[in-house]
C-alpha cells in the first residue's frame, strides 16, 4: 500500500512476522477501550459522525466535538512513546501525518463554530471519571443520554 505525503511516497513495510501482522490488524479505528470506557461513564452510544475527523462523541446542541486520542497513534507529548526499532522512516512519516490531519480537522471544526476537546488515552486509563467529568462540564446542560 502506498501513502502519498507532501514530501515523498512511502510504501507500507512488510510485517516482520505473522505475530506482528496479527497485532497490527487488530488495531481498531473506533470502539477502542478508552472510547468504550468513556461511553459507559457518559451513558452514550458511540456514533460515527460526519463532521471533519469523525469525532468520537458529538454534542450538537452545545456544538462540542470530543476526540479520544490514542497516545501512540496521535503522538502524545506527555507519554512520548518511542518509535519501533524497525521501519522508523515509515512510522515517523505516518505519525507526523496523523498529527497534521488532527490539527487540520480541529481547525476545520473550529471554523464551523464547534468547540473541540481532546481526551488522551492515558487520561482515560489514569482517571476515567475525571475524563468523563471534563466532557460533561463542557457539554453543560446539553448532555443527552442515549
Explain this structure:
This protein is α+β, with helices and mostly antiparallel strands. The protein has one domain: VSR Endonuclease (Endonuclease, Chain A), CATH 3.40.960. Helices cover about 40% and strands about 15% of the residues. The chain is built from 5 helices and 5 strands, in the order ββααββαβαα. The chain has a 3-stranded mixed sheet, with helices on both faces. Strands 1-2 form a two-stranded antiparallel sheet. The longest helix is centred in the last third of the chain and has 24 residues, at about 90-110. The radius of gyration is 17 Å and the shape is globular. The termini are far apart.
Task: Show the helix and strand layout.
Layout: E1 2-4, E2 9-11, H1 18-25, H2 33-42, E3 57-59, E4 64-69, H3 88-111, E5 115-120, H4 121-126, H5 128-139
Parallel strand pairs: 4-5
Antiparallel strand pairs: 1-2, 3-4
| Strand arrangement in the largest pleated sheet | 3-4-5
Q: What portion of residues belong to β-strands?
A: 5-15%
The helix/strand class is alpha+beta
Mean pLDDT comes to: 82
Per DSSP, the total helix count is 5
What CATH architecture label applies? 3-Layer(aba) Sandwich
CATH class: Alpha Beta
Tally the beta strands.
Answer: 5
CATH superfamily: VSR Endonuclease
**What is the string of helix and strand elements?**
EEHHEEHEHH
Q: In which range does the helix fraction lie?
A: 40-55%
Any idea how many domains? 1
- Main sheet characteristics: 3 strands, mixed
User: CATH topology, what is it called?
Assistant: Endonuclease, Chain A
Overall shape: it is globular
| Uncertain parts | none
From the alpha carbons, calculate the radius of gyration and give it in angstroms: 17 Å
- Cα separation of the termini: 39 Å
